[in-house]
């Protein structure tokens, strides 16, 4: 019986540079967990790292401005211009 492959749409491309040690560590981690690809391993490690820091993977409903490092000023919250 052949099962249908589930396709997950990927909207953004990210290119990163790794040191030889990082590349080797990624492959060791990937193979020890039988991950299908380096990309899948990187996505899983990113998800785990974000979760460990208290961030959930976005569900697509939040804007980048929702992730700001500083809060809104009182002028912005009551409608006044700074």
TrEMBL record:
Protein origin, superkingdom: Bacteria
Region (Disordered): 60-82
Protein name per UniProt: Ribbon-helix-helix protein, copG family
